[in-house]
Amino acid sequence: FQKLKSGLSKSSTKIVSSISSVITKRKLDDEALEELEEALIAADLGPVTAAKLTASLAKSRFDKEVTDEEVRGALAEDIAIILDPVAKPLEIDRSKGPHVVLVVGVNGSGKTTTIGKMAQHYSAQGLKVMLAAGDTFRAAAVEQLKIWGDRTGCKVVARETGADAAGLAYDAIESARAEGADLLLIDTAGRLHNKKDLMAELEKVVRVIAKLDASAPHNTLLVLDATVGQNAHSQVETFQSIVNVSGLVVTKLDGTAKGGVLVALAEKFGLPVHAIGVGETADDLKPFEADAYAKSLMG
Ligand code: GDP
């Protein structure tokens, strides 16, 4: 919880100061509510969520004297209610042999790092984890995944740069089966500037995986970089149009004041948020907990 709190400190500092600039001790009239709504929009919670939160405050406290602490406390409670339904850890089914997780997202969002962190987490739980370097386009991405493989003691299936990503996914599943792996994490390319190519590539990867195991991929995780703020919405829409996104991991919450975007995403898409990234090391992937997140965000 402390790590989460310090990770989210940039977001909470911004929100706390913008709320207290609207309210220190004040009557919660229409004007105060309007200013509060604007402050929440500025904190990346999005217009729909901001309106919903202020309406809820108005319902219980309209025209009453309130303090900023009281307002933040009430907001944290309402935000936790929004986040609660999406706060779901990833469930790995060991009987799947292997449970296949496809990891998608734009370049730089933190896919490879998240895979490395997940490899560490699930290996520590006693699962046999394998990694597939499916971003075959970038040599650096393959190298980076191999480093995570060494670090976590997990085997990495890779091919030469430019190799067919679907072919690699095929090899990886065969290899994971042969080795009796419980979990296979497949990295993918994220060249969003060429959406047609990316779409063709990801669709082929999914098709080939399903050929080997009709129930796979068992999860398709979209990794989102929180620092992009409202842009995250269009990334969700884009990837939903290409693959069957089953859940989110939101990264880089340590380096941004845009932590409110997660609330807006939860409200809009209702996709499970499996974990959050609050740093670059193996231990910096944290479970996403509604109450802790809401409280950390509201200082
Ligand atoms: P990919 O292109 O989607 O595979 O992204 P990478 O995994 O290579 O990550 C891009 C950069 O973001 C790297 O420098 C990572 O160390 C960094 N990164 C990833 N996740 C986090 C996070 O949660 N917090 C911080 N501060 N940096 C992160």
From TrEMBL:
Enzymatic reactions: GTP + H2O = GDP + phosphate + H(+)
Main location: membrane
Domain Signal recognition particle SRP54 helical bundle as annotated: residue spans: 4-83
Record bears the keyword Metal-binding: no
GO terms of biological process kind: SRP-dependent cotranslational protein targeting to membrane
Transmembrane segments: none
Annotated residues for binding of GTP: 105-112, 187-191, 251-254
Molecular function in Gene Ontology: GTP binding; GTPase activity; signal recognition particle binding
Assigned EC number: 3.6.5.4
GO cellular component, one term: plasma membrane
Domain SRP54-type proteins GTP-binding: 98-299
SUPFAM superfamilies: Domain of the SRP/SRP receptor G-proteins, P-loop containing nucleoside triphosphate hydrolases
Membrane topology according to the record: Peripheral membrane protein
InterPro entries: AAA+_ATPase, P-loop_NTPase, Signal_recog_particl_SRP54_hlx, SR_rcpt_FtsY, SRP/SRP_N, SRP54_GTPase_dom, SRP54_N_sf
Top-level taxon of origin: Bacteria
Keyword tRNA processing tagged: no
Keywords: Cell membrane, Cytoplasm, GTP-binding, Hydrolase, Membrane, Nucleotide-binding, Receptor
Domain AAA+ ATPase: 97-255
PANTHER family (UniProt xref): SIGNAL RECOGNITION PARTICLE RECEPTOR SUBUNIT ALPHA
Entry similarity comment: Belongs to the GTP-binding SRP family. FtsY subfamily.
Listed NCBIfam families: ftsY
Function: Involved in targeting and insertion of nascent membrane proteins into the cytoplasmic membrane. Acts as a receptor for the complex formed by the signal recognition particle (SRP) and the ribosome-nascent chain (RNC). Interaction with SRP-RNC leads to the transfer of the RNC complex to the Sec translocase for insertion into the membrane, the hydrolysis of GTP by both Ffh and FtsY, and the dissociation of the SRP-FtsY complex into the individual components.
Subunit-structure text: Part of the signal recognition particle protein translocation system, which is composed of SRP and FtsY. SRP is a ribonucleoprotein composed of Ffh and a 4.5S RNA molecule.
Name used for this protein in its record: Signal recognition particle receptor FtsY
Species annotation: Aestuariispira insulae
